[in-house]
Amino acid sequence: MRKTRTPPTDEGVAAARLAHCKAALVRENRRVTSYDVALVAGVSQSAVSRCFKPGASVSPSMHARVMAAATGLDYIPNAAARSLITRRSNMVAVVLCHVSSLYHPEALAELSRQLARRGKRVLLFTVQHEADVEQVLGDIWEYQVDGAIIAAPLSNEQVQEFERRRLPLVVFNRNVRDRTVSSVLCDQYETGRLLATRLAGAGHRQFGIVAGPEGSALASERRAGACDRLQELGLPAPVVVPGQFDYASGGSGLREIIGTLGRVPDAVLCGNDVMALGCLDTARHALRIDVPRAMSVVAFDAVEPASWLSCDVTTLRQPMHNMALAAADLLTSMIESQGSHLPEKRVFAPQLVEGSTARLAPIRDTWLAA
Predict the structure, then answer these.
(1) Which of 40, 156, 187, 283 can pair with 69 through a Cys bridge, CB separation 3.0 to 4.6 Å?
(2) CATH number, domain at 264?
(3) Residue-by-residue DSSP string for 38-94
(4) What is the 8-class DSSP label of residue 103?
């Protein structure tokens, strides 16, 4: 009596294909590809691609077979290959400047978080000075990113190049005059005005300013806001000295201000918190100035060291979480709209952190309102 052979089950065929494919991968010493997944699942390579493409039309049974094969082979889709099909890399270029401020790590962390929630990954570029952005633009084009968030001013020619390449762009925390460019920022000019207003209201008359680097748009706007407000209030022009957004220039800047005035100023505005720390240490430990009784010191950014008990700097905090959220939302909308999204400018107000380094007028003193 002849025995009838039982045909193999679908599961048995798939298991045999999987074992054969794994052996071939080991023998040939190569990585698993979508073609291997297709062989094990018994489908075409294009079917595998559709299974890994969000929103693609695939039957539940085919999707289950492909996913089982992919799991068995430890297959991970090739992002570069997938970008050739979708025409998107899901990468966003973020350009930051080394010397701008210590707030950039916080900004980068927030931007990375918000973009990741939208399926995007950050490709970070750093430049030493704001004027050096041109050096990284070639790399941005080369990496075929979906869009860019740049924390530096751009020339008209650079903006036009983004437009020519149809690459979505958001300028982060810089005031852009060009209405064709989308931007998200904390109004730096108004931050300078706010600090000058509160200090003048408390009786300060002679001011010094340790500004940032000459080429920094951020430092320039903070300085201009303070100087314009003091002029409006009829107070003497402040002594302005350049700084480098670092600890050393905070101390040397204070010495230069005192040397120019021939006396200790009533208040010193430092272009960022790091310079304020240098100014404070020089005032208290080297020059024996009583802060804030004899001289107030204020700053910008509210980075973590400024809040330490030994420092407790009076400073302005930028709403970095909300700004990063807005930048990610805006850029994602621009990418998805494929050029139909109209330019936007989203401006955020700063928050005053009242530390122990300054005497400030209460907010209720409305006679100083701008």
Answers:
(1) 40
(2) 3.40.50.2300
(3) HHHHTS-HHHHHHHTSTT----HHHHHHHHHHHHHTT----HHHHHHHHS---EEEE
(4) T
Domain with 37 in it: 10-77
Name the 3-class secondary structure at 209.
strand
Q: Are residues 227 and 334 in the same domain?
A: no
Nearest Cα to Cα of residue 97 among 178, 216, 219: 216
Rounded distance between C-alpha atoms, residue 343 and residue 276, angstroms: 36
CA distances from 101 to 33, 216, 301, 352 (A): 45, 11, 8, 18
> What's the full length of the chain, in residues?
370
DSSP state, residue 120: -
Q: Phi-psi region for residue 22, left (φ > 0), alpha (ψ -120 to 50) or beta?
A: alpha
Burial (CB < 10 A; 0-12, 13-18, 19+), residue 93, is buried
Q: Please report whether residue 369 resides in a domain.
A: no
CA atoms 85, 87, 88, 89: torsion sign:
positive
Is the omega angle on the peptide bond into residue 319 within 30 degrees of 0, that is, cis? no
CA dist., res. 152 & res. 22, Å (int)? 50
Rounded to 10 degrees, the C-alpha dihedral 196/202/208/213 comes to -30
Q: By three-state DSSP, how is residue 121 classified?
A: strand
- Can you tell me the distance from the alpha carbon of 128 to that of 130, in angstroms, rounded to the nearest whole number? 7
Question: How would you classify the pairing of strands 345-348 and 351-353?
Answer: unpaired
Give 10-residue mean pLDDT values along the chain (370 residues).
56 83 88 89 88 82 90 78 63 81 72 91 87 90 93 90 94 87 94 96 98 88 97 98 95 98 98 97 98 98 91 95 93 87 92 95 53
Residues 154 and 199 in one domain: no
As for how many domains the chain has, the answer is 3
Q: Are 217 and 199 found together in one domain?
A: yes
pLDDT value of position 49: 84
Sequence-distant contacts of 168-172: CB under 8 A, at least 24 apart: 168/331, 168/334, 168/335, 168/341, 169/334, 170/327, 170/330, 170/331, 170/334, 172/107, 172/111, 172/323, 172/327
Q: Give start and end residues of each alpha helix (H) in 131-284.
A: 134-142, 156-164, 188-201, 217-232, 247-261, 273-281
